[in-house]
Amino acid sequence: MHKDKKDSELIEEYYNTYEQKIFRLSNAILGDKWQAEEAVQETFLRIIRHRDTVRRMSEEKRAAYITRIAKSIAIDMYRKNKKAAEKVCVFSGDSESADVFENMIWQGSGSVGQSDMTETVENRQILDAVMGKLSDDDALVIRFRAERQLSVRETAAIMNMSESAVRKKYERAVSRAHKLLVKEMMLYGE
Fold first, then answer.
1. Mind giving me the DSSP string for 61-105?
2. pLDDT of residue 81
3. Which of 59, 113, 130, 182 has its Cβ near the most Cβ atoms within 10 Å?
4. Mean pLDDT, the chain, as a whole number?
5. Does residue 184 have a pLDDT over 80?
6. pLDDT recorded at residue 112
7. Are 182 and 91 in contact (CB under 8 A)?
8. Which tens digits make up the pLDDT trace of 6-30?
């Protein structure tokens, strides 16, 4: 059936079938509808480049393949945006600096060079002070997700919560912790 169709008809069929699914997946990863639209475009450009391969796949394999492409593109875009925000952002109280705070937590357990040791110890002390001021649940969800790097599913199982509740609790906990961090940074005169 697919072998008889023109490329443009196939791409249109794939677009009608997968566009909304790709958009929802990309938007969930990126959190921005404009970037999600860009991810959809990039996904379809890749599908067009590999249209002969996609054409030969069964419907089930095609859906998995397209989903994997979309997820990969959205994650790459997310990582690029995260790096760009880290370069520009300082701790100010806005949502971008909250992302930097979250990244600071995630990287808190990583290895450091000798020259960075003093800064790392100071950051760790500030983070510990902030974590100590959070509620037990907020601190726990941050520790599970960021320090121990457990997945949302694993965290939900441990905390006996739904995955969506864990995501929201983590988001809110990071926001609260960021506000406390900004206050701590002001106290330290940074």
1. HHHHHHHHHHHHHHHHHHHHHHHHHHHH--SSSSHHHHHHHHHHH
2. 75
3. 130
4. 77
5. no
6. 44
7. yes
8. 878 888 888 999 999 999 888 888 8
Using only C-alpha atoms, what is the Rg of the chain? 21
Reported as a single tens digit per residue, the pLDDT across 136-179 is 888 888 888 877 778 889 888 888 889 999 999 988 988 888 88
Nearest to 181 by CA among 126, 116, 108: 126
**Amino acid found at 35:** Q
Query: CA-CA distance, 13 to 19, in Å (whole number)?
Result: 10
Residue type, 107: Q
Residues 6+ apart with CB under 8 A from 108: 123, 124, 127, 146, 147
Residue 32 backbone phi and psi in degrees, to 5: -145, 125
Exposure string (b/e) for 30-64, b if CB count within 10 Å is 16 or more?
beeeebbbbbbebbbebbeeeeeebeeeeeeebee
Residue 94: φ, ψ to 5° = -95, 175
CA distance 72 to 65: 11
